[in-house]
């Protein structure tokens, strides 16, 4: 049995991958809200008591939350109680053998991760995103749909790269940054920054 934390849009994506890769596994959800998509699944509250009450039945867990801080909080709770996180990789993605992916991350269909890149724990590599050679993606990073990261790019922890953003080779994006959809990053972005536009410019500190 796999326990999925979250029952929103991103959880739908996670379920689709689980059904493709682990078709014999039963899925249960932990969330304080839901919608009709999940009506045929068991749903429990998303609190520590509920998680621990199911730990004997659930062999793996996945945190299907787009919100970085919520994902970070649940990862801490699961890890502290030795509840193993499952990494999800869509069979329609392309990942070179030399790539290292941290626990609890998800790689969605159409994504490509090239040689010698590393992906931290609990990251989201979304639909059709490409990450070229020797990139370093830290923990709890969101790489939005259709993003393109050229070689040797570094992305700091808890950074959110918006849909369709492009980052040229060798750029460093700091921790806790927000990169707007469609932005083109041609120079380093310091931590705690929001950057938008073509070419991207920093519009404020966060």
UniProtKB/TrEMBL annotation:
Site note Increases basicity of active site His, residues: 134
Key word Transferase present: yes
Positions of substrate binding: 66
Active site annotation, chain numbering: 133
Keyword Acetylation in annotation: no
Segments forming domain PglD N-terminal: 2-76
Any one GO molecular-function label of the UniProt entry: transferase activity
InterPro entries, sorted: AcTrfase_PglD-like (IPR020019), PglD_N (IPR041561), Trans_hexapeptide_repeat (IPR050179), Trimer_LpxA-like_sf (IPR011004)
Keyword terms, alphabetized: Transferase
Name recorded for this polypeptide: Acetyltransferase
Organism this protein belongs to: Alteribacter keqinensis
